[in-house]
Amino acid sequence: MAVPKIVLFYAFTPLADPRAVQLWQRSLGEQWNLTGRVIVSEHGINATLGGTVENLKQYVKTTKQYPGFAGIDVKWSDGTGRDFPRLSVKVRPELVSFGAVDEIAVDEDGVVDSGVRLAPEALHELVAERGEDVVFFDGRNAFEAAIGKFRGAVVPDVATTRDFVAELDSGAYDDLKGRPVVTYCTGGVRCEVLSSLMLARGFEEVYQLDGGIVRYGETFGDQGLWEGSLYVFDERMHVEFGDDTVPLGACCECGAATAKYENCVDPGCQTLRLFCTDCAGLARTLQCDACAELRPGAYPRPREDAMTGLSHDNHRATA
Ligand SMILES: [Zn+2]
Ligand SMILES: [Zn+2]
Question: Is 191 a catalytic residue?
Fold first, then answer.
């Protein structure tokens, strides 16, 4: 029986001809009936793909034959077989859209001057040694952190990755510049860049969680320093690392714990709000506050206490 899986990987490595890599990756994806997203840039590749385990293995094997991709760290997780609507393979200026393409240099070893990599075990050692001084710095969008994060983490007020540079330059985190700062994100790709941007801005001791939350969750589940659910950029929308995980999100209707975002009922609106299972039916009848203001009466108006929507501009962006 075909077992559906999802692979997540990236490589920062100089690509002389991103367009050629794009065409190659697209034909590979088509050959193995994969769906999902691949971004290619002059700085490397970033991919999240779904398919059968056999087909994905063939795809990964071939992809690793490209010299710059030989060492990719592929994270596997269970899929449903319908996790992505289609296959999308694109060339972009950046692997992740920080809007900082000119600030980042990439060589054969990856991003130049990025944070020190910490495996999950090494992260625990750092916390054991340095205790409360260690700062967890969430490298994701705020709505992702709303359902799960590292205990006590700093969650920057960013709606999209593009907001990070302004957020760092605002001075809001300058008091952390002398402390050990551990950046983390879903699979690690965003922290390669973020940790580099932080070092360039005078943060003195910056680490990045190697393999991201995905690898940490595989190692320690939610018995360690992680709390709640992990937001993922596919149809699953969230994953948990244990059977008894309590998501950190709160239903915008009743306040019950939930990890499930629902789209605004207005077609074309990307705003997400958290609803619990009991209130999920309401999600299909309620506009977000922005839509209710723009097109009043198009759908039943949300109640005052339901207006805690989170903007979610790059829901479809690769983690
Ligand atoms: Zn509820
Ligand atoms: Zn809306």
Answer: no
